[in-house]
Amino acid sequence: QVHLVESGGGSVQSGGSLRLSCAASGDTSARYCMGWFRQTPGKSREGIGTIDGDGTTVLAASVEGRFTISQDMDKNTLYLQMNSLKPEDTGTYYCAAGESWFSYCHGRTDYAYWGQGTQVTVSS
After folding, report:
1. Which of 9, 80, 93, 123 is the most buried (most CB within 10 A)?
2. pLDDT for the residue numbered 41
């Protein structure tokens, strides 16, 4: 089992920045793949990016160059640094942890463990 708690959401103006955190606890083997996703009303959940146990990150084209994923293994915390925010970045952001048997991280939605989500609102 993995328990995930996101924080850091809020309201910012277009062009602003936020850093989301995701504190993880539990089975570390299931945390080889960690991902960030966002959900907006009327749309399916969108993958923002992932990081694997080797620290390799992959970001969606919509956020590449603006968002950065990192993790602090000592603190068991995953981060999503969001810069140059746009109104279309508004949504509920979730972190997720994959299964221990995942052979790849990006481009999949069958992550087993999810946080409760944190709201990000970007105004124009």
Report:
1. 80
2. 82
